[in-house]
Amino acid sequence: MDLTNRTAILVIDVQNDFCPGGALAVNNGDLVVPVINRLLPAFEVCVFTQDWHPRDHQSFAANHGDCEPFSTLDMPYGTQLLWPMHCVQDTDGADFHEDLDIDKAQMIVRKGFRPHIDSYSAFFENDRRTSTGLHGYLHERGVDSIVLAGLATDYCVGDSALDAARLGYEVTLIEDACRAIDLEGSLATAIRHMREAGVKFAHSETL
Prior knowledge:
This protein is of the alpha/beta class. It has a single domain (7-206), classed as Rossmann fold, CATH 3.40.50. It is 19% helix and 22% strand. It contains 4 helices and 8 strands. It has a 6-stranded parallel sheet with strand order 5-2-1-6-7-8. The chain has a two-stranded antiparallel sheet with strand order 3-4. Helix 4 links the parallel strand 7 (170-179) and strand 8 (200-202).
């Protein structure tokens, strides 16, 4: 694909808790790091996201009595999948992977910091209305296309891709720069939804 100064790379949640040994480890999640680092110099606009949860966040199963991780609970904004406690503010688990070139980041979007609502997408909280401010930033930078990388394909990457497409961006997901959790077919479902929304898929070597 052709890259222009109107294309931004959006690096999603490459944090210790999503890498091997972390509280919510994605299989081979750390393998995205060298791929992303190779991609970053090709982009004039680089945005990273960071899960940034308070310890009492309502998406944590531990904050709901006997609820088990990966069970669901009805919230005012819809059905919430309950997670193991992860990416808690000011902990090592919330830090970016040590080998990720974060010096390239021009903006870091911290999401999921409101205790009563989760946030997968880089653009909106899970109520689909509360904005993170990213869309306004990209608009001011003149961005009209987005390349996505990071963790995890079937949750935060996928939701960010869908919102970006809905907002009118041309969206490309770099498959070898992402990894998935894949809970009960969630990866296949996410890919289907992204393709239906017009998201393109590519390999890092095509950039």
